[in-house]
Amino acid sequence: MMNRPKYLKRLVNAKWNGFPKIITGIRRCGKSYLLKEIFRTYLIENGVTEKNIISLEFDDAKNAPYRNPLELNKFILESCADKNEQFYVFLDEIQRVYTIVNPDLTGGKIVLAKDGDTETISFVDVVLGLSHEKNIDLYVTGSNSKMLSSDIMTEFRDKATEIHMAPLSFSEFYEAQGGKIEKQEALYEYMQYGGMPLAVLKNADEKQEYLKGLFKTTYFKDILERNKFRKTEAMDELCTILATCTGELLNAEKLANTFLSKRREKIDKETVTSYINAFLDAFILSETKRYDLKGRKFINSTRKYYFSDTGLRNARLDFVYPDEGQILENIVYNELCYNGWSVNVGTFDSVEKENGKSVRKSYEVDFMATKGSETIYLQITENLSNAEVKKREVRPYVLLNDQVKKIIVVNRPIKGTKDENGFTVVGVAEFLLGLDEDK
Fold this sequence. Notes:
- The chain is an alpha/beta fold.
- The protein is 41% helix and 22% strand.
- α3 (69-79) runs parallel beside α4.
């Protein structure tokens, strides 16, 4: 069994909290597996009997009658009729439950709702209604455009607990290898192919085909279904441009100009913004803002974008030899988010003397990460053996001269040590594995 301890812990902590648990995340990241295998096994090992776990998979033909929300509601209430017992109810691929017009308005007939209908009954109504039953604890998963977080959590109107999943973190990936490969070797494989659970189980050629296919057969299909985009080639090209520019400061205007230079075709900034928002909603991308470390304020003019999985990012570039700096930065960003850190790009200006004149220069810290009362700065680099590279990476830290912990993450197998300035230097694999409190 592929373990996902952090998500299991969140499910366990949310048991019987009075709200349905909605598991969201990018397609194929393991949402159903978490619920039906990992969490189910946990419940049984902790004394819950099989008959008290009711699981419905709506993409299974035998459960087709329960795609009618009224029949689903009736079935669950009848299955959990014994008020002296507690029942765990798993509803998988919930988007297959269709929305109907209230039968009171159709003479009792079941009529599928159309866009614009207001008096309707959907799976949201069923789930919220069942969550009021004191002996029912509900868990819901789904996929495709109807279950994107920005939509689904809005529909539940803060009456549900969201548990957001990502692909395997590096710590989860390394554990899944079972000690068969060294940490640094595992890191290089993770950099190339990422942590999509089904990809991890395949050989190199199969991984590449699987990851490239996910975009065409799954992600883009969902995005088009939800947003009704017409220029599919433009969306495809923009996704590739974002893969090329991973970790660069971007805005809609810069991306539109890059699109023009590559395609010899214009695209307006509004369309670029729409495509980016679609990628964010589908959890393909995450974005981070710039934060002025001295002015203590956010700067909204440009942002950085990172892929939820480096294998997916590399698939957009046909797995040509990756820019290791971009990939490392992407991995560190994802791992920080996975471990509950709020991550932004640090920036500040400094006035310095050059040839007797005062010159204002801008500096950047790759990440400012905050969790609770703790804040750290991170610079990510391939190595520090080059004097110029080291000077460039260390310079912002020296100029800041504050009390925030400063870390330099390098792509070498180095355990945490201090440099001559007192800054922590640590290898990527060691840093990533050290972040995970649940390992």
